[in-house]
Structures are given as structure tokens and as C-alpha cells.
Amino acid sequence: MRKKILLHTCCAPCAIHPLAVLRDLGFHVTAYFYNPNIHPYLEFKKRLDALIFYCDANDLPLIIDGHYQMADFLRAVVFKEQIRCTICQYLRINKTQEYAKSNGFDLFTTSLLYSRYQNHNEIRNQCEVLSKQSEVAFYYKDFREGWQDGIDASLALGLYRQPYCGCIFSEQERYDKTFKSKRDKPHVENDRSSNE
Ligand code: SF4
């Protein structure tokens, strides 16, 4: 019996390499879209539509938490902007492990581990802590090793590739380099888009 793994998926391009790795290992993979950080709404729709297209083309089951929960995200990070990425990652990973637990998955993991611009070790630690609490196993892999393969494949497929990480703050930083340089950075690597 193949083990069922829930792959939290931030966007289609970041899912390509993790999916290949997990399928090579024999897992039955299901993608899970929960990303309340994405701003504005049309950007959220663009990323989701690209993921739906990719999943259809690759016979990948997809569970969508499609309610646009930007207000929840903003309530969680307001007055805590300096640690917003930690909160953002936690919200998404926590929801993923909750869904995995409630729906009989053997393991969970996240495409956030593919990004070169996120705080990789922090994401790994959050997953490990939440896994212990929920008793759903976490599958760790440094998916960054497939960084260029994922980019090449997404370009070949013509997938939408977002130019900033996702939240309203990162959208400002995309254009406003002064804002970017003035901000105190808890982690330099958090400061970039996953696909820019
Ligand atoms: S920069 Fe990216 S990881 Fe950080 S809060 Fe914004 S969307 Fe989340």
C-alpha cells in the first residue's frame, strides 16, 4: 500500500520538483492549496488557476482551501511585521498538518522547502514541531537541490511565475527598494520572492 502524503503547495512552479521527488519515492501525492498571504485577490486567482492547470495536466489530486482569507493573514501579522514570514509559514504549515491529520494522510510536507529565498531551517523546524504535536509524520527533503530543474520545467510548460513572494508587504518591496532596504530583516533570505 502506497503511503499518502499531503504536499502543501504555494504555487505551481514550486510544486514541480517536490512532486517529482515524492513520486519517485513511491508516495501517493495530493496537493493542498492554502495560502491566505497572497495579495491582491487577482494574484491569488492567477496562482491558483496555474496550479489547477498543472495538477490537471499531471494527474495530481488537488485540495483547495479557496476562501480568500487575506483578512485572517493580516490580523495575524499586524504589529508583528518583523516576524511576518515566521507567522506566514506557520499558518500555512499548521493548516496543512491539521488537514493531513483529519483526512488520514500518512505524512505531510511543503513546497516552501523548495524556495531559495525562504528561511529553510525555520520552515523545517516548524514542520518538525507540528508533526510531533499532531503525530502525522513530516517528510523532510531539501528540495532546493532541484531549483533550476523546477524553473526550467515551469518555463517550458508556460506556467505563470509570480514576480514576488505573495503578501502585500512583498508586493510593495517588489517596486519600492527603499522600503526594502530600510526594513530590519530578521532573515535576509526571507526578503525575496520565491520566483523573482
Ligand atoms: S514575504 Fe512571503 S513568506 Fe514573508 S510574509 Fe510575505 S508572503 Fe509570507
Structural key phrases:
Rossmann fold; 196 residues; binds iron/sulfur cluster; five-stranded parallel sheet
Protein described:
The longest helix is centred in the middle third of the chain and has 19 residues, at 84-102. The chain has eight helices and five strands, in the order βαβαβααβαβααα. The protein has helices at residues 12-24, 41-57, 70-77, 84-102, 120-134, 147-157, 168-175, 177-182, and strands at residues 4-8, 28-33, 62-64, 107-110, 137-138. The protein has one domain (4-191): 3-Layer(aba) Sandwich (Rossmann fold). The radius of gyration is 16 Å and the shape is globular. Mean pLDDT is 91; it is low at 184-196. The structure holds iron/sulfur cluster. Iron/sulfur cluster binds next to α4 and α7. Iron/sulfur cluster binds at residues 37, 84-85, 88, 165-167, 169-170, 190.
